[in-house]
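Entry 12.
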Amino acid sequence: MRPMNRKTKRVAVGLSGGVDSSVAAFLLKEAGYDVIGLFMINWHDKTGTLAGDCPWEDDLLFAELVARKLDIPFHSVDFSEQYRKRVVDYMFAEYERGRTPNPDVLCNREVKFDLFLDKAKELGADLIATGHYCRKDEFIRKEDGQTVYRLLAGLDPNKEQSYFLCQLSQEQLSHALFPVGQLHKPELRKIAANAGLATATRKDSQGICFVGKVDLPAFLQQKLDPRDGMTVEIPPDTEIYMNTHDESLEEMALPYRYSPEMGKIVGKHRGAHFYTIGQNKGLNIGGRPLPSFVIATDVENNILYTGLGDRHPGLYRKALFIRQPEIHWIRPDLKLQSGETRDLLVRIRYRQELQRARLIQKEEGLYIKFDAPQRGVTPGQFAAWYDGEELLGSGAIHA
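Predicted 3D structure (tokens):
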């Protein structure tokens, strides 16, 4: 973050009412930027939110307190209708298909770095900033003189958040600043306390972006009807898991397919579309020698398949597939062409340790083959690939 010694640039900071964005605004003002605070109201409906979860009204109050302390202009904007259409409706549609979306990734792509950016420009801002724990740098490409932006991991391994920005574009990155990406959380809270910010000791938010912490089935039942179905437990020695060492890449990337005859009925559920791969809470299964985990959902026939223990083979896969239209490169200049392969680091969920894998580009899409089988490969989630600390691209897991 370089001090402004030329024409001062105006930055709109997405003040969320949390400590991270508050310190982002403080650091930018200290660096000499012309800072304005902008609070987004993206959700009003409290259906399914858990008791005690802070509503957006509290967040707005804290954001206003921070702006007042920093003596910066403050604005709020209501994106709730666009957020419902671009993020929540997508989320409902994905669950109905038996996929598990990541609304936070979509929120960043569709709202924070799109709608928010447009509003910031209306207010005369040149740049936008958030409290994400990640970093950005840039270089001039010698071949054509174009500026290339790189999205880098944050330095605090306990808070690193680049994964949530895995769908951003070069255009979006060109307008973005991430002032806290160089910091560790304890250091950031100390800065907030020393600056007298009201958010210095406020707890970090949890749950769905802008919605909050929710009872997911109750939240989804706003649009998805409950349907009684059976839960089938699949034994770990089922024949489907045997002799997989000769599988082709395409076969390795396919999820296991089950039928009720392969196991035994161990319970009932209210809708297979309410569950996700790897889930072990809320299954209403008792009397088993080990915890039960979801290993597959069949939304067409409304059957939930489970396995005992977190080492059940149904939880693990060697590869995954991303359809061609759903492949996104933050660095288009490094995009794989059909027939090309590259060894990179991959994660398939937030906070997962980076995994060694080979990316294999084919006409129909991208295959990712892992050095070690991965637990909980979940259709609808995003796989993100890195070269060291740089996030190069991502895509929604198809199967």
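Annotation: The chain is about 20% helix and 30% strand. The domain at 10-219 is CATH 3.40.50.620 (Rossmann fold).
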